Amino acid sequence: METLLVDVTDDGVVTVTMNRPAKKNAANGTMWDELRQTWDEIGLDPTVRCVVMTGAGDGFCSGADLGGGGDRDMHQLQAMNMIHRTIQALYSIMVPVIAKVNGVAAGAGMNMALACDLIVASDQARFSEIFARRGLSVDFGGTWILPRLIGLHKAKELALFGDVISAADAERFGFVNHVVAHDELDAFVDDWSSRLAAGPPLAMAMTKRLLTFNASADFPSALEAEGMAQTVNFATSDTREAIDAFLQKRDPAFRGR
Fold first, then answer.
1. Residue 45: phi, psi to the nearest 5?
2. Is there a contact between 7 and 17 (Cβ–Cβ < 8 Å)?
3. What are phi and psi of 117, to 5 degrees?
4. When you count CB atoms within 10 A of the terminal residue's CB, does the N or C end of the chain come out lower?
5. pLDDT digits over 206-236, tens only?
6. CA–CA gap between residue 100 and residue 177 (Å, rounded)
7. Which of 182, 197, 212 lies at the terminal end of a domain, its last residue?
8. Per-residue b/e over 52-67, b at no fewer than 16 CB within 10 Å?
9. Which residues have a Cβ under 8 Å from the Cβ of 157 and sit 6 or more positions away?
10. Would residue 107 count as lying in a domain?
């Protein structure tokens, strides 16, 4: 691939690194396409237990590459369709996805991080819904995800002003899980991804999906969905293994079935 680096560990952690450091990993048409392909492949791979998204160099992703040359020749509706398919592919991944934000995350880059399940940021990271400052409206799923994370009025504050905010302010706004010292970022995310990879894949996948979609469901529908998921869990060997491990005072070994 031209714009991504993909690394897979023995315990099923896939790290996807956006690799255009000279442009703070701004996404051109090639990167959108490669991200979509990669996320689609991850979504179909039963050996994957956790995904880490990050950027090369000192940036996470500075958004769309507005000076992307050939990308401008694409009809705008075609371009937006490709972007929509890309964010849908990320949002559809069933395993936990951690955004490891090592630097600037702006525009679509910020919304890419928001579409992940967890965000861990370096104390050097910066965030911005910068669209308005470029004469654009918010895209890449930001108008749907951001209000659900921080509330409507706070979302409007970030979107309408387009200010660049620090990692500490992002944590205060409520869309970053943890801020760590820059030189501790790798170790912290390695620990989290290893812990998630060791968890029960089926149960965690269903929990992720329930949390995501029940946020906009009514209470009876949420309870019904929980009941259906729990019924599936009790039929799996992973749940039996967890109960046996608890009774035998040992760590469970989950196999995803």
1. -100, 110
2. yes
3. -80, -30
4. C
5. 999 999 888 887 788 888 888 888 888 888 8
6. 11
7. 197
8. bbbbbbebbbbbbbee
9. none
10. yes
Show Cβ contacts of residue 94 under 8 Å, excluding neighbours closer than 6 positions: 43, 205, 208, 209
Q: For 27, which DSSP code?
A: B
Q: Is 239 a member of any domain?
A: yes
Contact 214, 105 (CB under 8 A): no
Rg for the chain (alpha carbons), in Å?
19
Residue 103 in this model has a pLDDT that exceeds 60: yes
Q: Hey, what are 185's tokens?
A: 């970022």
State the Cα–Cα distance between residues 179 and 99, nearest whole angstrom: 12
> What is the total count of domains within the chain?
2
Q: Alpha-carbon distance 121 to 44, whole Å?
A: 28
Range of the domain at 243: 201-248
> Strand pairing of 50-55 and 59-61?
unpaired
Give the CATH number, domain containing residue 104: 3.90.226.10
Is residue 159 within 8 A of residue 149, CB to CB? The reply is: no
* Residues 104, 209 share a domain: no
The residue behind tokens 């979107």 is: 159
pLDDT digits (tens, 9 = 90+) for 107-122: 999 999 999 999 999 9
Sign of the alpha-carbon torsion through 7, 167, 148, 78:
negative
List all residues 6 or more positions away from 56 whose beta carbon is below 8 Å from its beta carbon.
Answer: 5, 17, 18, 19, 20, 21, 25
Residues 144 and 61 placed together within one structural domain of the fold: yes
Quote the pLDDT of residue 70. 45
Do 179 and 118 lie in one domain? The reply is: yes
